[in-house]
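Figure 6 in text form: structure in, sequence out.
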């Protein structure tokens, strides 16, 4: 029995490495040394008690990087590469939001990045698989923003990857992005982004640019944007190239609350296809809540349009969402076709000549059983559904306002 116990203890030591015990000038160098020592074996690298990570970390397949509570400050100063490059089959796990990873303060913002996203040429075209980041906080430190070019967590064309229970706290770039370059026919697939918290993120909090079977579920977006530096959208589906795809994307059970934002920062959920990719749809937007501001007089809120479906999209379902106190439309359909919009509730939306529910240049869509009302505590807004432009062959049924059934206004732009 004693011999068996010794074998078990040895195996335990072989499968776990404490990075702090390895040589290196900083925690990053120590983690890399532990990773090399673990070799091709499956196992964990444990990092304790915080510190500075100035050396870029490259995590090998089948390795888990586990952080104990503490503050880990990044000094990697890499503009185009992440502080951590994650190969297929890797996991980064914190102890919770008391594991705080502070983004680089001067040069660079990318914290975690798929290895093949940046190291395969052309860049952003490669794929990795089975990468997961969970249970930690990424805290902003760089006062600059980059206009939505980079991401705190850059998954690229990752397959079977996930980000869960991560707090993106005042970061200066896109929070999480799924999808990279479509070169070679690659795209992100079976990605899950769920139960994360995004506060004061400077640009898009969650972005999908090239992917299929992506689930964005049960995330919380609060106080979006950094005042006046740039606009932002909490959730953005936006292919960048005609070869990109947006297939089977689900946006469900998310809460976007900009009550305590300090400026009108952009849209809640934006689904767009300006590059006219043929690989678009279906998309499901269901059971989300968008709150632009407090329900008080003389307040239009800090979200522009609650749910905006636009720019040559198709086959989008918008079902059972609640949009409250946004400055522009609660829901807007524009230059889109074959949508199903049902069971949504718009409360005190539409101000400044913009109506609560606008359907513009939209065809072959069903708009049924939606409620458009004004809360007397926040009277700015409208109870209007309007169809305009070249819209055609749309059907309306069972929509209602405070006084009963609500038929659409029609403003035709057709010759």
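Output sequence:
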């Amino acid at each position: 029995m004693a011999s068996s116990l010794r074998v078990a203890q040895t195996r335990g030591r072989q499968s776990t490495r404490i990075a702090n015990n390895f040589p290196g000038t900083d925690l990053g160098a120590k983690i890399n040394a532990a990773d090399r020592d673990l070799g091709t074996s499956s196992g964990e690298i444990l990092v304790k008690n915080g510190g500075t990570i100035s050396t870029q970390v490259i995590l090998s397949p089948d390795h888990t990087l586990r952080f104990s509570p503490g503050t880990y400050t990044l000094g990697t100063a890499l503009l185009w590469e992440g502080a951590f490059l994650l190969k297929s089959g890797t996991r980064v796990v914190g102890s919770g939001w008391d594991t705080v990873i502070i983004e680089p303060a001067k040069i660079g913002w990318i914290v975690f990045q798929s290895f093949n996203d940046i190291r395969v040429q052309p860049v952003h075209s490669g794929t990795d698989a089975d990468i997961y980041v969970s249970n930690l906080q990424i805290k902003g430190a760089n006062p600059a923003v980059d206009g939505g070019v980079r991401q705190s967590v850059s998954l690229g064309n990752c397959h079977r990857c996930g980000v869960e229970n991560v707090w993106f706290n005042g970061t200066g770039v896109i929070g999480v992005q799924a999808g990279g370059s479509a070169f070679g026919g690659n795209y992100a697939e079976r990605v899950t982004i769920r139960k994360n918290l995004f506060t004061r993120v400077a640009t898009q909090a969650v972005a999908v640019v090239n992917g299929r079977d992506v689930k964005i579920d049960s995330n919380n977006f609060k106080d979006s944007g950094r005042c006046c530096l740039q606009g932002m959208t909490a959730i953005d589906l936006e292919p960048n190239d005609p070869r990109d795809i947006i297939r089977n994307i689900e946006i469900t059970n998310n809460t976007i609350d900009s009550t305590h934002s300090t400026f009108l920062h952009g849209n809640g959920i934006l689904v767009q296809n300006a590059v006219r990719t043929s690989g678009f749809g279906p998309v499901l937007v269901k059971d989300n809540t968008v709150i632009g501001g407090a329900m008080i007089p003389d307040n239009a809120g800090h979200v522009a349009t609650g749910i905006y479906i636009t720019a040559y999209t198709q086959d989008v379902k918008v079902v059972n969402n609640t949009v409250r106190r946004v400055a522009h439309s609660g829901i807007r359909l524009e230059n889109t076709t074959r949508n199903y919009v049902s069971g949504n509730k718009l409360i005190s939306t539409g101000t400044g000549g913009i109506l609560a529910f606008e359907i513009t240049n939209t065809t072959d869509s069903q708009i049924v059983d939606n409620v458009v009302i004004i809360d007397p505590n926040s009277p700015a807004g409208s109870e209007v559904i309007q169809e305009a432009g070249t819209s055609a062959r749309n059907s309306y049924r069972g929509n209602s306002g405070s006084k009963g059934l609500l038929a659409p206004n029609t403003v035709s732009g057709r010759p």
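Caption detail: The helical segments are 2-15, 27-38, 115-119.
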